[in-house]
Amino acid sequence: MAEQEKKSGYQTHQKKAITAYLREHNSELLTPENIRQGLAESGVRVSLVTVYRFLDHLCDSGAVTKVSSTDGKRSLYRYSALDSKDYSHGRMICLNCGKLLPLECSLLETFYEHVQKEHGCRLDYGKTVLYCICPDCLESGANL
Questions:
Q1: Longest Cα pair distance anywhere in the chain, in angstroms?
Q2: Using CA atoms, how far apart are residues 137 and 144, in angstroms rounded to an integer?
Q3: What angle do CA 51, 102, 109 make, to 5 degrees?
Q4: What is the DSSP letter of 72?
Q5: Per residue in 59-107, pLDDT tens?
Q6: Spatial distance between the Cα atoms of 56 and 64, rounded to a whole number of angstroms
Q7: Which of 17, 53, 12, 11 is nearest to 32 (CA)?
Q8: CA 80/CA 97 separation, integer angstroms
């Protein structure tokens, strides 16, 4: 029975708490440690392993976006299921504020074709991430 519940997407108290925490902090880039600590501060005990596993599930379902930190040493997560934007061609993520922006550019198709033809690789449009400083942060004076 427990295996059946797992396959059907059974939601534990901990999973609901993780999802709620991500929704509440949907403009932030969070580490699994940030999430576990934030939940602990609100009285919800959850193991780091549970956070990692559930984040993987949320990434696979498209509810959460996973990106690497600028130094490439850790993964950062942002809840994106509430976004009404189309991220099917990838996303840009602001290194300053964490905002997600759709990656919409007529030159992308040419770039994807170049990579396939010249390098023998096919890019995954939906998982393409470019790091940037968003227009709002540039306007306020943020630097790379």
A1: 56
A2: 10
A3: 115
A4: S
A5: 888 788 888 776 778 888 988 765 656 666 778 888 777 777 888 888 8
A6: 9
A7: 53
A8: 14
Nearest to 106, CA basis, from 89, 131, 130, 120: 89
Please give the structure tokens belonging to residue 1.
């029975």
pTM higher than 0.90: no
Structure tokens at 34: 């940030």
Residue 91 near residue 131, CB atoms below 8 Å: no
What is the pLDDT, as a whole number, of residue 8? 37
3-state secondary structure 77-139: EEECCCCCCCCCCCEEEECCCCCEEECCCCHHHHHHHHHHHHHCCCCCHHHCEEEECCHHHHH
Distance CA 45, CA 17 (A): 10
pLDDT over 60 at 45, yes or no: yes
| Token pair 């939601």: residue | 11
Q: Using alpha carbons only, what angle is made at residue 78 by residues 74 and 82, rounded to the nearest 5 degrees?
A: 165
3: its two tokens:
């295996």
